[in-house]
């Protein structure tokens, strides 16, 4: 369970987050949605202790993120930020292998190698395993980073817009994989999404943010409704049930 | 398949490393044996002291530069950006100014070394400790170092203008790196500091690999970034201070050595990069000194030779890289 209580964040005088309180239950896929500048990425950074907490309290599995040793947190929680540049000259398999770092700090064991191979396979990277990261396309690099995050093997996985740069095939593949590990392995996935239909199809719960506050939060079916979507995004859109899936016609 | 190729890559890196070690040993033997004349025991002892100093300084400069570049996520800066060597030059100028050339030459070398070492590490700690207490970020710290460096250089210029020409000549002898007058006593001091610093850097080699992925990714993988970065920077400062206090400023050597090494070994893995950079530095220094003694008749100082040849090699690499 991720518990957020009274968290505010100000950067250079402007308020980014304003007294956010939120509980993300253990297990399942929770989508974080909202317009640009709502504070979604900032909230994710604070949960993942990438930024120091200014006020309030955040715990993951009961561990306060600001005082628990970083390594201990890295064994239960993995984070993938939006577009983290990788400056190092690395092969894909090496990058993915860094996901094992919190568990071993050095030499890979046979079990680690199995996990790395499985992660490469999972994200369709086996053929690219020996390519250098700087020779990949944006989407391939994104998949390598997602694979590294998976390779960390944590109970909590935080992803900031992981579908960026991915084509339809790989975006669907990623969402289905997230769904499967949540269902089969009881993992907790917190994911920032821009495509509301991906959230509608794959998330158990949706948390909507706007102007640094949480304005709606609940089961997917309770959030994917025209009135609530309009209050979040500022325009009206139709919601249809197509072949048993809620579909938002936001582009028309 | 992946396994096999990765393994082969590792073997290739280790092969290159072994080759570099062999070249370093050859250069060392050449330095010790070419043109031996006169009292063998005396000459060999003199050369051994110089060789030890060059190995120490080479290792210290190479390791500190690699670690500094990784922590700062920048492959074209050297620890001299922190203003440590500017402080060193300023201290020497101030001492010559206050004591005159004769007084300066009369300072106990041990006291002199310790004084210089303490001044440089104190400046570094003054820069890094606020960073630990979350008041500074890395960029701001580096900028402060740059500004302090400019301040020390300006003060040095001012004092140098006021110096007597004879004193100025004494000063020139100390502010260019030179291995001709290394005190054997000081080798032990500098050696202990260098061995300790290199041991810490070597133990942190896997952490350094993770730091190279970027701050956010490193934190996500469980590295306590602030503490780790500040700790490593203190190690860098100690290594730079020890080598500078021993022979004088050698900052450019680090830039040259690390870019050369990266091209030779073709990996950013610190388990390979750290020893490879140290070996390159030893080859460059010992080779340079051998050339200086036997081809250039011992005129000038190694620092000048390294910076001159190094600058040309570096430009050549840049142009070659740009054309590819």
From TrEMBL, chain A:
Domain ABC transporter as annotated: residue spans: 2-236
SMART domains recorded: AAA
Main location class: membrane
Keyword match Transport: yes
Membrane topology of the entry: Peripheral membrane protein
Origin: domain of life: Bacteria
Protein's organism: Mesorhizobium ventifaucium
Family in the record: Belongs to the ABC transporter superfamily.
Protein's name according to its UniProt entry: Petrobactin import ATP-binding protein YclP
Gene Ontology MF: a single term: ATP binding
Keyword annotations of the record: ATP-binding, Cell membrane, Ion transport, Iron, Iron transport, Membrane, Nucleotide-binding, Transport
Cellular localization per UniProt: Cell membrane
PROSITE patterns noted in UniProt: ABC_TRANSPORTER_1, ABC_TRANSPORTER_2
CDD domains named in the record: ABC_Iron-Siderophores_B12_Hemin (cd03214)
TrEMBL record, chain B:
Protein known as: Enterobactin ABC transporter permease
Pfam families: FecCD
Membrane topology summary: Multi-pass membrane protein
Keyword Transmembrane: yes
Lineage top rank: taxon: Bacteria
Keywords assigned by UniProt, alphabetized: Cell membrane, Membrane, Transmembrane, Transmembrane helix, Transport
Transmembrane portions of the chain: 17-36, 48-74, 86-107, 113-132, 139-163, 186-202, 207-225, 231-260, 272-296, 302-321
InterPro entries with a match to the protein in the record: ABC_BtuC-like (IPR037294), ABC_transptr_permease_BtuC (IPR000522)
Stored SUPFAM superfamilies: ABC transporter involved in vitamin B12 uptake, BtuC
């Amino acid at each position: 369970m991720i518990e957020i209580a009274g968290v505010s964040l100000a950067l250079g005088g402007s308020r980014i987050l304003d007294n956010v309180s939120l509980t993300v239950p253990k297990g399942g896929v929770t989508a974080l949605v909202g317009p640009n500048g709502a504070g979604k990425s900032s909230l994710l950074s604070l949960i993942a202790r990438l930024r120091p907490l200014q006020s309030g309290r955040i715990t993951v599995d009961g561990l306060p993120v600001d005082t628990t040793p970083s390594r201990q947190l890295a064994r239960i929680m993995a984070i993938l930020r939006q577009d983290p540049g990788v400056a190092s000259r690395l092969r894909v398999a090496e990058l993915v292998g860094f996901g094992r770092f919190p568990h071993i700090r050095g030499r890979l064991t046979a079990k680690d190698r199995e996990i790395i191979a499985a992660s490469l396979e999972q994200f369709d990277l086996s053929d690219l395993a020996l390519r250098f990261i700087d020779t990949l396309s944006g989407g391939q690099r994104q998949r390598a980073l997602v694979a590294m995050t998976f390779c960390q093997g944590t109970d909590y996985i935080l992803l900031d817009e992981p579908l960026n740069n991915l084509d339809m095939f790989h975006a669907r593949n990623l969402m289905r994989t997230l769904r499967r590990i949540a269902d089969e392995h009881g993992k907790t996935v917190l994911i920032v999404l821009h495509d509301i239909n991906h959230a509608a199809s794959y998330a158990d719960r949706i948390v909507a943010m706007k102007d640094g506050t949480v304005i709606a939060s609940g089961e997917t079916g309770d959030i994917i409704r025209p009135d609530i979507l309009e209050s979040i995004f500022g325009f009206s859109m139709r919601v249809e049930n197509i072949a048993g899936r809620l579909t938002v016609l936001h582009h028309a | 398949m992946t396994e096999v190729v990765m393994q082969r890559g590792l073997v290739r890196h280790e092969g290159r490393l072994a080759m570099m070690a062999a070249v370093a040993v050859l250069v060392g033997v050449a330095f010790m044996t070419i043109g031996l004349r006169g009292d063998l025991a005396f000459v060999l002892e003199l050369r051994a002291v110089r060789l030890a100093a060059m190995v120490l300084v080479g290792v210290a400069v190479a390791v500190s530069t690699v670690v500094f570049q990784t922590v700062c996520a920048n492959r074209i800066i050297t620890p001299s950006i922190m203003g440590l060597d500017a402080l060193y030059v300023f201290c020497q100028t101030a001492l010559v100014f206050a004591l005159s050339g004769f007084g300066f030459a009369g300072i106990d070398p041990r006291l002199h070394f310790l004084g210089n070492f303490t001044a440089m590490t104190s400046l570094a700690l003054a820069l890094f400790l606020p960073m630990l207490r979350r008041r500074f970020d890395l960029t701001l710290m580096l900028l402060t170092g740059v500004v302090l460096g400019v301040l020390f250089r300006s003060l040095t210029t001012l004092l140098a203008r006021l110096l007597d020409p004879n004193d100025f000549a004494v000063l020139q002898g100390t502010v260019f790196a030179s291995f001709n007058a290394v005190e054997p006593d000081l080798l032990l001091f500098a050696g202990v500091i260098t061995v300790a610093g290199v041991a810490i850097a070597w133990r942190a080699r896997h952490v350094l690999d993770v730091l190279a992925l970027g701050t956010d990714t490193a934190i996500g993988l469980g590295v306590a970034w602030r503490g780790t970065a500040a700790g490593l920077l203190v190690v860098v400062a100690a290594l730079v201070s020890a080598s500078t206090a021993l022979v004088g400023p050698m900052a450019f050597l680090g830039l040259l050595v690390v870019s050369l090494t990266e091209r030779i070994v073709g990996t950013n893995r610190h388990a390979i990069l750290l020893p490879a950079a140290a070996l390159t530095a030893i080859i460059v220094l010992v080779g340079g000194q051998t050339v200086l003694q036997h081809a250039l008749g011992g005129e000038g100082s190694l620092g000048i030779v390294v910076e001159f040849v190094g600058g040309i090699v570096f430009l050549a690499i840049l142009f070659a890289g740009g054309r590819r």
